Task: structure prediction
Amino acid sequence: MRAITFIDAEVVQETGKIADFGAIKSGGESMHDASLDAVKKFLRESDFLCGHNIIEHDMKYLNKNIGQFSCAGVIDTLPLSALLFPQRPYHALVKDDKLQTDELNNPLNDSKKARDLFYDEVEAFRSFPDEMKRIYFILLGDKQEFRDFFSYIGYKCDKSSGEAEIREYFHGKICEHAHIERLMREHGTELAYCLSLIYADDEYSLTPPWILMRYPYVDSVMNKLRGTRCAEGCVFCDEMMDAVRGLKRFFGYDAYRSFDGVPLQEQAVKAAVDGDSLLAVFPTGGGKSITFQVPALMAGKNTKSLTVVISPLQSLMKEIIWREAA
Result:
């Protein structure tokens, strides 16, 4: 196994100078020193460097302070954590994009936390089904944030059947008519994060905010996979974007109300699910709330996103009570 060193740098933001530095090698040898000569000497025989947010932070300042640093690869535990632990942000260690440590501003302690996280990430990847491993490699094997991870663990596979693998493995979980080949070509990283969340199949898991900031097309990709009903119909859309099934799933009712034999509630919900513009007018007590709650709940569940429903119901009720009292 090639040598890997886990690092963390504390930097003076105003000057970019490294104020403190910690590192630990896979064999257990460690250092905690701000001397640039000591840092350079300690890292000299490292094949791989690894850290939390190392690409955007530590390597930038290392190269600035000690010159362009050359090694076989740089592994960042930050983008890997959201990919390999989609159910939750890596138990207690990660909050948003930060490692939680027991001691503030201790780079050696942070290096040890990054080491523990990295080895958990290796085990997590190895525990995935072969199909998911191949999908991740096909989508991410040439991306800066991930390629050195695959190199370190020695994983590679044939990339020729990526679209077919995704469609087969996620059959019934994404729209059959989504343009997978285009998404792979234009937004491979975002597609990988979306598929990771879908694979987790956990209704309480959401995409971390820092992922949405760094990869703003994640929401758009998820919407193309699971948020837009296809015109032709497919297993996923017929099940998860059906207005009546949505009513049953969230409220337990088998059918919507009808007015003079016309299913106005169902028509309103269906229009919202289909993405059509609509204006629905119902009398007080006619069931307006359910016509916007059902499609909102369906959208939140399908796209693994937070749904906010703004309802004037409480204000309306208070206004009616006030008028009756007057």
About this structure: The CA atoms of residues 6 and 50 lie 5 Å apart. Residues 107-127 form the longest helix (21 residues).
